[in-house]
Structures are given as structure tokens and as C-alpha cells.
Amino acid sequence: MRLRRHTTQFVNNAYRKEITMDFEKVVSVKNMRESDARTIAERTPSAELMMRAAQGIFDKVKFAGKTCVVCGKGNNGGDGYALACILARHSMDCTIVRAVEGFSKDGLYYYQLAKSLGVNEISLYEAGNFEGYDIVVDCLLGTGFSGKVEGEIAQAITQINMTPAYVVSADINSGINGDTGYGELAVNSDITVSIGSLKTGLFLNDAPYYIDSLTNADIGIELLLDEYKLIDYDNLELFEGYNSEVYTTEEFMEKFNYSPETCNITEIVAEMSVKNKKTIVVKTEHSAVIADVKYVYFCADYIRN
Ligand SMILES: NC(=O)C1=CN([C@@H]2O[C@H](COP(=O)(O)OP(=O)(O)OC[C@H]3O[C@@H](n4cnc5c(N)ncnc54)[C@H](OP(=O)(O)O)[C@@H]3O)[C@@H](O)[C@H]2O)[C@@H](O)CC1
Ligand SMILES: [K+]
């Protein structure tokens, strides 16, 4: 399935250059979840969307050797059980770990299906540091996560972060807030496969330091709101000239007295840019959010198609 793209023109103030670009969408968690819900209500059963999410991960990652899928109790875990079904159907070696008790409705369906297809299951304790696996898939927490990780989830994240295996995060690195990118303890991924559309949190705060590469799997969800746009990282410098205020995340938090834990940088820079009629850039070492009065853009040097 092709990612929906929109072509837009914008004029850069500093260089008066006209640039025509294809924009991929970046969205808030609320928009993603409400768009998911509408798609389910109007067109596509939730179990079908979950299978598409799993297929998206399967298509984006070159699965080989032994895979261990580590699941939480929500639909992010459900994506993991559906992926285990796909791997089993391809006769690939797959083990699941239920890091916490409980299932979502669709998660339970795919868990039972995976078991009936002969997928092996071990406990989190038995999984240890996931030695002996080639790939570990992090399906603990997705867009339903907020607050801080504790208990078994914190334990599972710590264990995943000790594995020598290639780590794949489903949708969002578990422990990272999908809106703010804040995460004190989160999974370090080799690749994160975002589901539906890229979430703002994948570019902000701590997220860029947990993600090695980032890609998105389109699963046919039509967005309710057209929010933010993805641009090439190479174009960041075009926004850093005349009439721009450029901050690192730390400088931004300090100057305006925000706490990274609660600050929604995207909403704040969007408002500031309109109010002051200025371009505002907030950067990490690998990514940036740019509010340019009319539009908000995101970019990162770890985007992969
Ligand atoms: N149908 C769809 O919409 C589709 C969704 N899709 C997938 O579903 C994901 C969203 O699924 P979701 O909404 O079930 O939430 P999810 O991210 O699995 O986690 C929620 C669980 O975590 C828990 N939890 C929360 N905070 C916590 C904390 N601090 N520490 C510990 N636990 C915490 C919370 O528990 P509770 O607090 O409610 O007891 C709840 O059980 C999305 O990212 C995508 O991967 C795709 O399949 C496409 C179709
Ligand atoms: K995850």
C-alpha cells in the first residue's frame, strides 16, 4: 500500500526560494486514535487493522533466524501476536513473551491463533537478556501509554535493552510518550515501525536518542485532521536564517520554564510562531520541529523509507 502524500508549495523567507515537496503526515496521538476509531466504525474491522499493522512491520523488517515478540496487554501487544501469526505462517522461528497479564479483545484473538499455529511461549523471566534471538520485537506499549513505566513493563524494557539482538519497536518505542517524545526509561530500537502515521513524539525530546531508524507503515487509516508535515532533514537549514528563533530542546525548556515531562513542544511552538509571526525551530541532535507561522514541520536524520 502506498503512503498517501500531499504536494504543497512554500516560500522560504530567508532565501525566497520556492520549494515543491511531497509531504508525509505527522500527527498527534489524539488525531491518530480518533482516526483509527472512525476507520473501524465506518470501514475496517479492528482485527483487520491489527493484522495490517503486523503485516506492515513484517514488510518493513527483513525477518530471519529466531524472533522473540514481547507483548503488553493493549493493542500494541495485539500487533505483536498478529505478527507472531504471520511469522508462523512463513514457517519462521517465533517465540512470544507475555510481559504482563491481560489482553485486548483483538490481542486475545491473535494470541490464541498464534498458539494454535504452534508459536512457542516463554516467561519474561525465562527470556533473560534475550540471548539466542536474532530479532526482538517490542510490542509493550504504543499510543495508549502515558505516565511512567513501572513494574513488569519497566523490567521488560530493561531486559530488551540488554539484548544483543536487532530490536524492532512496534509503533512507538515502549516508554516514549507519543505526543511529547519524553521517556525516562524506554526501549532502544534499531528500527521503529510507526503504524498509520508518524507521531510527533517520534521526533521530540528523548525519542531521537532511542531510535536508530524510523519508518511508517500505512494501514489505510484516513486522518480526521491534517496536522503536521514531514520534510527532509537537509531542508532544516532553510528555516534557521532571518526571522527565525532556533533553540535546542534544553534551551527551549529553560528559557520558557517548561518541564520536558509535561511540555507539548509542538502545540507551544505552533502558537508562538503565529503570535510572534516568526519561525521557531526546536532541535535535538538528530531532529527538529519547525513552526513556520502557517505550517508545522518535522524532520529527522533517522527517517528510512
Ligand atoms: N484499533 C486500533 O486502534 C489500532 C491500534 N493499533 C495498535 O494499538 C496501539 C494502541 O493500543 P491501546 O490503545 O490498546 O494501547 P497500548 O499502547 O497497547 O497500551 C495500553 C496499555 O498500556 C497500559 N498502560 C498505559 N500507561 C501505562 C504505564 N504508564 N505503565 C504501564 N502500563 C501502562 C494500559 O493499561 P491501563 O492503564 O489501561 O490499565 C493499557 O493496557 C497502537 O500503538 C498500535 O500499536 C494497531 O493495531 C492498529 C489498529
Ligand atoms: K512498542
TrEMBL record:
A single GO molecular function term of this UniProt record: NAD(P)HX epimerase activity
- Name the UniProt key words of this record, in alphabetical order: Isomerase, Metal-binding, NAD, NADP, Nucleotide-binding, Potassium
Q: Which cofactor does it need?
A: K(+)
Q: What is its EC number?
A: 5.1.99.6
State the reactions this protein catalyses: (6R)-NADPHX = (6S)-NADPHX; (6R)-NADHX = (6S)-NADHX
**Binding positions for (6S)-NADPHX?**
N75, N76, G77, G78, D79, G142, T143, G144, F145, S146, G147, K148, D171
Pfam families xref list: YjeF_N
Is the keyword Disulfide bond in the record? Answer: no
Q: Which SUPFAM superfamilies is this protein grouped with?
A: YjeF N-terminal domain-like
State the top-level EC class.
isomerase
Residue ranges annotated as coiled coil are: none
- Transmembrane spans: none
Xref: InterPro entries: YjeF_N_dom, YjeF_N_dom_sf
Q: How is the cofactor bound?
A: Binds 1 potassium ion per subunit.
Q: Which domain of life is it from?
A: Bacteria
Q: Which residues bind K(+)?
A: N76, D138, S174
Residue ranges annotated for the YjeF N-terminal domain, each copy included: 32-227
Q: Which NCBIfam families match?
A: yjeF_nterm
Q: Function of this protein? A: Catalyzes the epimerization of the S- and R-forms of NAD(P)HX, a damaged form of NAD(P)H that is a result of enzymatic or heat-dependent hydration. This is a prerequisite for the S-specific NAD(P)H-hydrate dehydratase to allow the repair of both epimers of NAD(P)HX.
Q: Which family does it belong to?
A: Belongs to the NnrE/AIBP family.
The name under which this protein is listed is: NAD(P)H-hydrate epimerase
Please name the taxonomic classification of the source: Bacteria, Bacillati, Bacillota, Clostridia, Eubacteriales
Gene name of this polypeptide: nnrE
